[in-house]
Predict the 3D structure of the following.
Amino acid sequence: MLLDTLYRVARPALFAMDAETAHERTFHAMGVARLVAEGARLRPDPLLARRVGGLTFAGPLGLGAGLDKNGVAVRTWDALGFGAIELGTVTGQAQPGNDRPRLFRLVEERALINRMGFNNLGAAALAGQLRALREAGHWPKHAPVGANLGKSKAVPNEEAVGDYLVSLAALRGLADYFVVNVSSPNTPGLRALQEKEPLERLLGAVIPAAAGTPVFLKLAPDLPDEALVEAVDVAVAAGCAGILATNTTLSRPGTTGRLDQAGGLSGAPLAPLARAKIAVVVGAAAGRVPVVGVGGVATADDVLALLRLGCAATQLYTAFIYGGPTLPSKIHAELLERARAAGSLDALVGG
Ligand SMILES: Cc1cc2nc3c(=O)[nH]c(=O)nc-3n(C[C@H](O)[C@H](O)[C@H](O)COP(=O)(O)O)c2cc1C
């Protein structure tokens, strides 16, 4: 298929570049990718739809946050067949992020290390993108679009709530769901907001301000199990629609050590740790709220393993960089074939 050919041809040149430069170049081609993808009809079959926290995801595999921080390629993600599309992280203020280089490939490990530090144009700019999509009638018909919110670096933790509320005020009524991100490792102090009292204060302010739009909480894989359980309890009590687990890890499981850089590790080496932490989160949620599993997902078997663990849906980021633009639709196609053979996706998951 044409997109695969384009990716195969472009990949050696892209992988010869600094990882972030390659990312930026690829974004210039997003319009073309969308047109090709539209022609190829890659959106998930209705048999794959999943109910997640009051929303219907078009399929069990969504786009994880961070790939499209400013929401510039929503129509392309939709056309490529993601079941849900998470944009951001955006912060209350526009900010440049950390110094470059800040994104590194570990090709043999099919992993990335990043210390981007929430480079983004700010919540108001994302709101502008989403409003324009809605007004032009280009909002995805089946894949919900979420906005992942973080804290501006210049704002101290004591004033974090206000910064999240600035983002919410800009984006209210525009996103299909929100994610409170307190789990990225590259904003100093951010992960302290996962602790009980700050988290209660934050969610206690954000959820009412979201005015009925579902709010998810995204957690880190580096939290001890007891802290994860506590965070899930706080989220449920506050009225969160669901939990996303996990973000990147500061630990270095399963890497060769050929390249080490400060930052969060994602991709294949994260999978076992993420899976163990997702199991803890699913157990703590105990069916009270859905869990979206993320971390090292790269195949239909990975998606199925997380659904069988009790996740309502999954996301990926890093595997997309290594697998290319047709990966989400290929994973959904394989799941569809197996779901049809089993009678339904639920039957496949149950079996
Ligand atoms: C370069 C890069 C940037 C990321 N930026 C964000 C972000 O802004 N907000 C967020 O919640 N997660 C961010 N993530 C984490 C991913 O959404 C995901 O949780 C993590 O990478 C694990 O999934 P994966 O192994 O499929 O990549 C980022 C990941 C990468 C690799």
